[in-house]
């Protein structure tokens, strides 16, 4: 039972499955039926399923048959209608074919026209596309053409800007075209070309300013000179000066004019030509001569190209080289002022350019670089000036050089360069200038002293008198009262020397101008230089004149008179210096003039030379002495040579009337002493071996003539017999021998009241020895021949006693 139930259950389950499969076959697409059928074959009920399937097919067939039977009449009607439609369709087809044939025939031209229209439309689209592409390419080509034109006309900075626009704006829009690729490939080469050409322009510019730096500097210094002259006028005429521009404004206006010139200027000449300008026209500004556009362009180009540092280093390196060339002075610079001027012009031109570059570019040069160059230039310039100025022997050239250095310093100071060291160096050159002045004035003084006639200046009219007094400060009431013609006591060299001293002071003052020195410093400089002139130069010139071999007593006397008046004029020189420096002599630390000492020394030297000259003249006369030392009798008169000598002395001392009293007295006393000493030497000289009493008496007459001259008072001012004392030694010696007063001499020797106090026993013995053997040869003693032996014995006795005196004196 249970088995039957189970079989029945399985049968129902199988039937349900078969039903499901059938429904699935009916509803499933034929392509996907395979899995369904596979499940049937996999089961065990294949036969039953086939039966089910057959049964289902039969059911569907019955349904189709029913449906066809139901619709068959409709189908027949539809076929009948379809057959009718076929005839109509055939007829319609013929009509359509005919219509199509006619349409084709009629539309053939239209088709051709449409085909042509199609081609036109295609061409139109192509043209439009081409125009659009060309519109993109044309700006590129125009920019490239513009670039080429700018390159051709050397507008390199605009060309570089055009190249940038071309590369970054235009070429990316048409980068797929081949010609654009060519352009892109050319861009680096074009940049290098612009870079090289701009560098070439810069080199040309650097070479040009190197060659023309002297012209630039000359113009700058001319303008500085004009400005200084204008400042001087302003200082003298304040009202007029208020209408003028200040120095700073003048140079600022120059910079403004230069900066107004576009850096993109197309003129690359570098230096503008100003050679044809008229001299009376206004001097152009220094920077107006220079076209700086090559520098600006090159700087901008290298900045754009990212190589600004390379450009700065190159520019600075080249300018340093040029600076060293500029600072190398020519070997013959010291020969002329033009050599110094050209040297200064080149330096000024160099730094004017650098200063302008500093202020018109950002960072191409900086203040540290400029200061470094200036320090180098300053040291080299000062060294060169020290070396070359030392060769200058012309004070006028040194003065002109000083003025040129001051102008050089003032010009650079306007541009902000420190120039204190230049003014310090000028103080060194001042000492050299003083030396050259001293050498020049040595020649001037020498010419004055050599050409002077050493005679008082004669004047025959009031006009000539005032002329001399105007040249030399001289006042003499007695001389003014004298009628014309009259004479000044001094010779022409006095006013000439005085005026030359003033000229020297003026020359010293000229050098001190514009050195920014105080009045006290100027006064001290002038006084020190004038002292050197007086104590070294003038003193040496006077000493040389005084020591000349051919100088006469008259000239020496006139020199003493002249130096006396020059000594008195020193106070006027002090006043002259005070007036031009406005520094009172009472001011602390003020140097005093040594003129008084100079002229005193010269006068003393002249006095000594007078004494020496007089003695030489006396010696010359004494050389004419021709004594007969063995003469038996005297001539009863003085010797001729001595008479001439006395006459010479009288005439000489008569010339001494204008000399100071002490000088004339000293000269007279010196002459008498020298004459007495020379006569004593003449009497005692070794060549005179024997001496007769007659010769001694003749010698005594000559001494008496000398004593007579001394008593006559050839020079006023001596007291009584003061001048005769010069001959006292001779007088006592001659009296001792002519009076043969040996007993008195020997008895009183050594006592203050001794009659023969001035007779030296050595001198007496020497003279006595000369007279020993003369008694035999002297005719005077012939009649006393019987007393010869006694006389000789007496001489021997006196000589023995004299030797005893001498020995006792030495012991």
Would you write up a description of this structure?
With 811 residues, this protein is mainly α. Among the domains are: 216-230 and 288-417, no CATH class; 434-455 and 491-608, Exocyst complex subunit Sec15 C-terminal domain, N-terminal subdomain (Tetracycline Repressor, domain 2); 624-810, Methane Monooxygenase Hydroxylase, Chain G, domain 1, CATH 1.20.58.670. It has helices spanning 2-27, 34-42, 46-152, 156-170, 178-236, 238-241, 247-259, 293-304, 308-326, 337-360, 367-389, 395-414, 420-451, 462-471, 477-481, 493-512, 519-546, 553-568, 570-581, 595-622, 640-655, 661-684, 693-711, 728-738, 742-748, 761-770, 788-810, and strands at residues 458-459, 486-487. The protein has a two-stranded antiparallel sheet with strand order 1-2.
What descriptors fit this protein?
mainly alpha; EXOC6_Sec15_N; Exocyst complex component; transport; 811 residues; Tetracycline Repressor, domain 2; Methane Monooxygenase Hydroxylase, Chain G, domain 1; two-stranded antiparallel sheet
CATH topology name of the domain at 624-810: Methane Monooxygenase Hydroxylase, Chain G, domain 1
Number of helices: 27
Shape: rod-shaped
* Share of helical residues: over 70%
The profile of the biggest β sheet is: 2 strands, antiparallel
Distance between the termini: 209 Å
Q: Which regions have little confidence, pLDDT < 50, spanning 5+ residues?
A: 239-281, 779-784
CATH homology-level superfamily of the domain at 624-810? Dsl1p vesicle tethering complex, Tip20p subunit, domain D
* CATH architecture descriptor name of the domain at 624-810: Up-down Bundle
**Percentage beta strand:** under 5%
The total strand number stands at: 2
- Describe the strand arrangement of the main beta sheet, using strand numbers: 1-2
Give the radius of gyration.
69 Å
- Which structural class do you get from the secondary structure elements? mainly alpha
Write down the secondary-structure element order.
HHHHHHHHHHHHHEHHEHHHHHHHHHHHH
- Mean residue pLDDT: 78
At the first level of CATH, the class of the domain at 624-810 is: Mainly Alpha
């Amino acid at each position: 039972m249970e088995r039957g139930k189970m079989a029945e259950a399985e049968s129902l389950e199988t039937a349900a499955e078969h039903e499901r499969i059938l429904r699935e076959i009916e509803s499933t697409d034929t392509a996907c039926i395979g899995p369904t059928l596979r499940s049937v074959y996999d089961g065990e009920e294949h036969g039953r399923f086939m039966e089910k399937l057959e049964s289902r097919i039969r059911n569907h067939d019955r349904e189709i048959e029913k449906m066809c039977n139901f619709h068959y009449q409709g189908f027949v009607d539809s076929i009948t209608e379809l057959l009718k439609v076929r005839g109509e369709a055939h007829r319609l087809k013929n009509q359509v074919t005919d219509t199509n044939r006619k349409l084709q025939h009629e539309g053939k031209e239209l088709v051709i026209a449409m085909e042509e229209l199609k081609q036109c439309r295609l061409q139109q689209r192509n043209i439009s596309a081409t125009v659009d592409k060309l519109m993109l390419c044309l700006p590129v080509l125009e920019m490239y053409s513009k670039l080429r034109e700018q390159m051709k006309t050397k507008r390199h900075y605009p060309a570089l800007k055009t190249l940038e626009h071309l590369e970054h704006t235009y070429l990316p829009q048409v980068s797929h075209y081949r010609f654009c690729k060519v352009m892109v490939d050319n861009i680096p080469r074009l940049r290098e070309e612009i870079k090289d050409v701009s560098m070439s322009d810069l080199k040309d510019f650097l070479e040009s300013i190197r060659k023309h730096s002297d012209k630039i500097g000359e113009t700058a210094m001319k303008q500085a000179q004009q400005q200084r002259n204008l400042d001087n006028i302003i200082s003298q005429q304040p009202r007029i000066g208020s209408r003028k521009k200040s120095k700073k404004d003048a140079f600022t206006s120059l910079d403004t004019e230069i900066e107004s010139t576009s850096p993109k200027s197309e003129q690359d000449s570098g230096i503008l030509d100003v050679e044809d300008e008229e001299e009376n026209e206004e001097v152009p500004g220094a920077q107006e001569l220079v076209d700086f556009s090559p520098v600006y362009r090159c700087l901008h180009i290298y900045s754009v190209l990212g190589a600004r540092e390379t450009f700065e280093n190159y520019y600075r390196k080249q300018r340093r080289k040029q600076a060293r060339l500029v600072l190398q002075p020519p070997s013959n610079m010291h020969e002329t002022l033009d050599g110094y001027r050209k040297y200064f012009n080149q330096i000024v031109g160099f730094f004017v350019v650098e200063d302008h570059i500093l202020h018109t570019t950002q960072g191409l040069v900086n203040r540290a670089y400029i200061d470094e160059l200036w320090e180098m230039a300053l040291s080299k310039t000062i060294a060169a000036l020290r070396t070359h100025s030392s060769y200058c022997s012309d004070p006028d050239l040194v003065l002109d050089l000083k003025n040129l250095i001051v102008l050089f310093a003032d010009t650079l100071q306007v541009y902000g360069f420190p120039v204190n060291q230049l003014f310090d160096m000028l103080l060194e050159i001042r000492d050299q200038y003083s030396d050259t002045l001293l050498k020049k004035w040595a020649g001037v003084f020498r010419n004055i002293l050599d050409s002077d006639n050493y005679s008082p200046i004669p004047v025959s009219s009031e006009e000539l008198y005032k002329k001399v007094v105007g040249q030399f400060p001289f006042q003499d009431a007695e001389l003014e009262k004298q009628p014309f013609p009259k004479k000044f006591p001094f010779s022409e060299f006095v006013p000439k020397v005085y005026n030359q001293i003033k000229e020297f002071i003026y020359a010293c003052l000229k050098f001190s101008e514009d050195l920014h020195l105080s009045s006290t410093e100027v006064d001290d400089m002038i006084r020190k230089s004038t002292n050197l002139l007086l104590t070294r130069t003038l003193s040496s010139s006077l000493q040389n004149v005084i020591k000349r071999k051919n100088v006469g007593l008259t000239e020496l006397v006139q020199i003493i008179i002249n130096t006396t008046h020059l000594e008195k004029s020193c106070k006027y020189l002090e006043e002259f210096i005070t007036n031009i420096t406005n520094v009172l002599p009472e001011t602390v630390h003020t140097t005093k003039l040594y003129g008084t000492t100079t002229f005193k020394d010269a006068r003393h030297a002249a006095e000594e030379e007078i004494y020496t000259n007089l003695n030489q003249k006396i010696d010359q006369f004494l050389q004419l002495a021709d004594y007969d030392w063995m003469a038996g009798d005297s001539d009863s008169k003085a010797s001729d040579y001595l008479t001439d000598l006395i006459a010479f002395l009288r005439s000489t001392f008569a010339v001494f009337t204008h000399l100071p009293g002490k000088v004339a007295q000293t000269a007279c006393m010196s002459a008498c002493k020298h004459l007495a000493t020379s006569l004593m030497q003449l009497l005692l000289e070794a060549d005179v071996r024997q001496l007769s009493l007659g010769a001694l008496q003749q010698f005594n007459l000559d001494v008496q003539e000398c004593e007579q001259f001394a008593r006559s008072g050839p020079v006023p001012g001596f007291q009584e017999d003061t001048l005769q004392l010069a001959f006292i030694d001779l007088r006592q010696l001659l009296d001792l021998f002519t009076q043969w007063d040996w007993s008195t001499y020997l008895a009183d020797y050594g006592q203050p009241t001794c009659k023969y106090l001035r007779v030296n026993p050595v001198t007496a013995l020497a003279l006595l020895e000369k007279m020993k053997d003369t008694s035999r040869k002297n005719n005077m003693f012939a009649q006393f021949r019987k007393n010869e032996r006694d006389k000789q014995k007496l001489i021997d006795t006196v000589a023995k006693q004299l030797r005893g005196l001498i020995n006792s004196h030495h012991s």
